[in-house]
Each structure stands twice: as structure tokens, then as C-alpha cells.
Amino acid sequence: MEIEANSIQHFKLWSQLELQEFSDKFVIRSTESPIEGFSVSRFDGTIEKLNGDMSFGNPSKVSTIYGVAGTIRLLAGSHILLITSRKEVGNYLGFPVFRVMSMKFLSCNEASTRLTSEEKKDEAYFMNLLRVVESTPGLYYSYETDITLNLQRRCNLAKGWMSKPVWKQADPRFVWNKNLLEELIENKLDGFIIPLLQGSFQTGHLKLKESPATIALISRRCTRRLGTRMWRRGANLEGDTANFIETEQLLEFEGFRSSFLQVRGSIPLLWEQIVDLSYKPRLNIIYHGETPKVVERHFHDLLQRYGDVIAVDLTNKLGDEGLLSSAYATEIQKLSSVRYVSFDFHHCCGGSNFENIQLLFDQISEDFEKHGYFLIDTEEQILAKQRGVIRSNCIDCLDRTNVTQSYLAQKSLNSQLQRLGALSSNECISMFSEDFEIFRTMWVDQGDEISLEYSGTHALKRDLVRYGKQTMTGLIQDGMSALSRYFLNNFQDGVRQDAMDLISGRYSVNRGSPSRVQHSGLESLSYLPVASALLIGGLTVTTITINQAGRNTNTYLSSVLCAGVTAGVMAIVKANGRQICSRPRLCGLL
Q1: Would you kindly state where each structural domain of the chain is located, as residue ranges?
Q2: Given pLDDT bands bounded at 50, 70 and 90, which one contains residue 560?
Q3: For residues 354 and 356, what is the distance between their CA atoms, to the nearest angstrom?
Q4: Residue 578 pLDDT > 80, yes or no?
Q5: Cα-based torsion angle of the residue sequence 59, 61, 66, 68 in order, rounded to the nearest 10 degrees
Q6: % residues pLDDT > 70 (the chain)
Q7: Among 203, 467, 524, 573, fewest CB within 10 Å belongs to which?
Q8: Do 70 and 177 meet the contact criterion of CB atoms below 8 Å apart?
């Protein structure tokens, strides 16, 4: 529906919905306007608009829901994804923003035809993936506006664009459920179609010498190469990179609004890092004739969208990272339109030398000032445009990248507050401890959320963002997160990757086509306890027999035998590491 807001007509989604369950159908209607809604057949998933029809009798169950995230068809029938709880987390440009707290799939497959034994195995696996999808973290939306577009892009659009349905306003790169919305779009259910953004949304209120300001931090995760930490690295042949995120820092002060954009993304080469039980698996660069074109396509897209680009590479210059960094530098330096800056973060800022990040800023400060930020006044007249963007990367584009981006965001925020008169020319946000703590906490929380979506754990180096130095507590937390990442990456992320490939449409389910699900190979969660038991048992017996080895020759020989068996088991486990680890079954790496 369309409503008036600040004399500007804009489209608003139905925000309070009722789910009615009947023996043959589900009915979803708006409580604000009960004649608005649609039904979904429980037998085959067919969707029909209500068109004012209220004569369905008494439902067996009625519940409140907060949105429909879309539909997906599997082998046995259709499933509809509902938002079952939400939380208001702030507002974007005056419009309330909500976080999805829980989701649930409803199955509409009671009339499904018989499945073959192979199809039953596939369907069981797909259903397991839907349960993984239900717990997807970091999903946000608004009923009253699109949140996938940054402020500068919004202001460059033609007047009247906000009167379009919200899904038509959205940037498809950042719509997490784009593939799930197709049936709702085909049935013209515009008032029920919610584009979900995956990423992070944080807000804070600054006092600033009794001149209040509001700051929002919005990170938008691209869906073009969606995936988990170890199973989505680098770029695909189209130039889309893993963990590509646009982050907007939005400031509102006395009616003025300013926006500062940064982007991050995996090194845009063809490369992989396959888990094999090693703590740090080897990086493998895939040498391909298309590599120069891949890099060119990636940066051409950035130049078209953001203007000038500075590519800041934070990776190590030694070991595997060094080889990857060198290959990246070789390719990117062929592009005259992109400036490449290499900064070995661990070498320069390690050992509590975080202040050395100023060395990076000194290299890019001139271009950083030229890029600027976007600024509009109280009448929405454009006072300044952001003319370029800094693209940061490390290996994961999580920890080092987040520390660097928070530092650059602080520099930009100081410039904006000084220009607007909130701070004098010799003041900065760090001089106001309460406000600075709010700013740093937002960046820590944002880093955690992005890390959870990609790696499954909180970010590392959180205390560098929060305190500007490494602390003992932070080191312990980093160690625990690193161990958690190791376990998740080796023994769970294959399934998480498949869930993302299924929900994004990268893997399509086709009834009657040969199965493409790879059921062969070791099941990681089944073989992990066995391998662990053999190793722990062998080490225990070996330790006991060694302690008793001095008593007689037989015991000594037993200890040698046990040690040999244990070493053999360890060698077998290591040699078969890639088979033991959790691997995606649905799609290849590129």
C-alpha cells in the first residue's frame, strides 16, 4: 500500500500478518486490512490471492507472523518461509528497521508423488538444509523503505521511486532472499514481498557537547558469491568475490545527513583453501587464462558504482599469503584506473603497535580526502558527493579488515562533524569518551555479526577496535574463537555452504533430472568421533605403557607397538583429512 510521509508518497508493506491453518490450505492475511492476503495449497503449494474472499470456515490454528520471506520448491513439493519473530533495532532515514529473530518453513507437499529411493535420500538432505536456513543470522528489513540502497544512490534516483513496491526499489546484489521471492512476484503480492538484507545494522546516539547526533552503521552482504569462510574464497569467473560487503556509516545532525562508504571483499583472483584438518590449510592459486579478465571485471564494476578505487591489501608478505598477495599485485597493477596499496598489517601493527596503522593512512590520506563523503542539507540538497571508495581486504576480510575500516571511518566521521560544526577543527570524536565508546562498540558488534555469517564465530582482534590495543582478555577470546573456527570450518561448513547454495538458487532442484547430490565419501560428523577415539585411546595406552616400560621387556615392546599404532592412525587421519572434513555436496568452488 502507499502512504504519505513528509509529503512524499512511499510504499509500505503489511507489517502485521495472521496465519490461518486449514486442512487443505494455509491462509496469510493482513490484520490491518483482512481482505488483503493469499492462500497456499497444502497439497501442491499453489498460491492464490484472496481477492476479498473470507469464506474459508474456522481454521484449526491461528498465529501471528511478521512477514513472508519467500518460497522454495524441492522434489516432494513446495515450502514457504515465514518470519515468526522480529526485533526493532533502530531506524534508517526515519523508517523503522527490524531484525529477524526466528523463521520457519511450512511444508506444502501433501499431494507429492512417490519418490525413488535416490530422491528420498536427496529430499531428506534438502530438508536438513532448510533447517539450517531457518537459523540464518544477521537478516534485516523495513516495512516502509528499502535498506539495500545507500544514501547517495537513493538521492540520485528519479523522484517517485519510493512509490514503487519495496522489492522493486532494492539493489538485487544485497537481497538475501531474491531467489525465494519469484513466486510471490509472479502472483503480484507486492504488499507481502519483503527484501531481506544480510549483514549488520547498528545505531548509536552521540551527545557531542550537548549537540546530539545519530550514527548508523549498515553493512550489506552481497549474494553473488555467498558462502562460508573456507568454501568461498576469491572470485568466480564473472569477477564476483566472496565476502563482498558494502558498509555505510550514516550520520544525522541537526537535519543534515552524511554518508561514508567502504567496501571489502576477498582477493579477486581464482584461489582456494580446502580444509584438510590442518590448522591453516595451504592456499592454492588457480592459474587460469581468464584471471586478468576476472580482475578487470571486478574492478570495472566497482568503478562504475563507486568512482575511484583504492585497493588496500592487508595480507602478509611472507608464506602462502605473500604468494597470493604478489599475484594480486601483479594483476591489479595492469589496471591504470585502480590504485593498489600493500600494507602488511601483522608486520606493521603486531605486538600492540596498533598506532602504526597511521603509516597506512599517510599513504592514502590525499586520495582519502579527495574521495570525501556524501552530504545533504535539511532540504535534501546535495552539498558534497563521495567520489571514490577504499576497498580493503585481508585473507578472510574479517579481522584485519574490520580494524582498518573502523580506523578510516573514525577519520571520516571527524571530518564530517567538524564541517557540520559539531566539533571544532582541533577536536575529534576520541576526545569524548562516552561518544567514542559508542562508536567503537558499534564497529565491534558489526565485525562480530559479519564474522558470524562468514566464519561462524565472533571476530578476532576485537579489542584493537574497542581499546586500540591487544589485551590479555582479548587474546584469550581470540584463541577460543580461532579454535571454534577450526572446528566449524572442518566439520560443519560443508552443510552450511550447501544451505546457502540451495537458498540462493545456485543449486536448482529439478524433479526427474539425475541427482547431482554427492552422497559418497566419509561423513565428517560420523568419522570425527571415531578418529578422535582412536587417537585419544592410542595416546592414553601409549602413555600408560611408557610409564611402565622400565619394569620389563614385554611392557617396553607393548609401548613401542602402541606408539607405532597411534602414529599410524594419526598418519591415516592426516592423509585422509580432506575426506574426513565436511565438504559441500551440491556445487563446485567456482
Answers
A1: 8-195, 198-446, 526-580
A2: low
A3: 5
A4: no
A5: -70
A6: 87
A7: 467
A8: yes
